[in-house]
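I have been asked to look over a protein record a colleague put together. Thanks in advance; the entry in question is below.
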Amino acid sequence: MTASSETRNTAELIYDWNEKERTGPLLRQPPRFVDESIRDGLQSPSVKDPPIEAKMHLLRLMDRMGIQCVNLGLPGAGKRAQEDVERLLRFIGEEKLRLTPNCAARTVASDITPIIEISQRVGTPIEVTTFIGSSPIRAFTEGWDTERLRKHTADAVKLIVDHQLPASFVTEDTTRSHPKTLDGLFRAAIDEGATRLVLCDTVGHATPDGLRNLLNFTRALLRGLDVEDRVELDWHGHNDRGMALTLAIYALEWGFDRVHGCGLGIGERVGNTSMDLLLLNLYLLGLLDPTKHDLSCLVEYVETISRTTEVPIHPSYPLSGRDAFRTATGVHAAAIIKAERRGDMSLADRVYSSVPARVFGRRQQIEVGHYSGRSNVIYWLREHGYEPTEALVDRIFAAAKAQDRTLSEAELRALAG
């Protein structure tokens, strides 16, 4: 599935300001992703922890979509988390999924040791992402000093590396942390063998300027230590200011090696970067290799997360929402109808949408309401097997204009009957 699957004529009918004056490729390297749906996403107070079968199904979908790494959980949370992580780790091997397993841990041995033990029992390495709060506001609240933070960091990374597991070091609240603190913690982690730094916008504080400044600081530090070739950078964003998706795209454009996200954007407070919307936008930008990223299951992925976590999909949520390709407005519906009459479904998909519905297994829907024209009524009747006689169209049109909302299918069928 590629952006070129649209007809050439449709593409020629869109003037794309997004591409104007672009001087080179948007990304320096193919994008890589860490899916946090079944770890960080489950920290939302509104979610239900899905059963293991649902998590397995999500792993299959992630593999199809070309996600490279999945966070299987936080074993330090207790027995159930440990059992789920071990079962999922075995499942990845049994199904020969191309997912790199990852687990979160605080910078304490009681969190890290269960991950080591699970890895040893299964015989599969697990990337350990060990995290510690690094911002001055957190340190003041907790009563931490910088030396304590450095010691916890060094001890945790050493424990991971001593057991031959990949060590990623995560500074919580990086986007509000002081450069001196980050310098000390990054050096301590790298000295003990960390091969990845995860920069976190834990409370959704960052703007694009903040992201760029933080990245430039971190890169300068890695250059000074001469470790740019062996230490990679991840970006982990939250959506408190509504910027998570934008910042994730910037992170990839500016050279982060991986970006984290959750399906449906679930997570604490207002959630994490939406993985499905990130994939959707990269597809629309032509930045995903179709041989590696099968997005035909993208809606199924979102619907599975919604159903199994009991987090509803907002009607206007892009791509997967009930109203994403639904209109009851007369002028919009008329344009879609005219495009369909031409026999050009690509044109119908794009005349009032930037997202090609049929590519993702969805379709344009025309409803009838108080903003509708007669063409809406005629279209709906034909789509549902009714002959649009003038009297019937008049009756439904009059009923629609008398309402303050869109008519339901049951109401329309009653009027048509």
Summary: The radius of gyration is 25 Å.
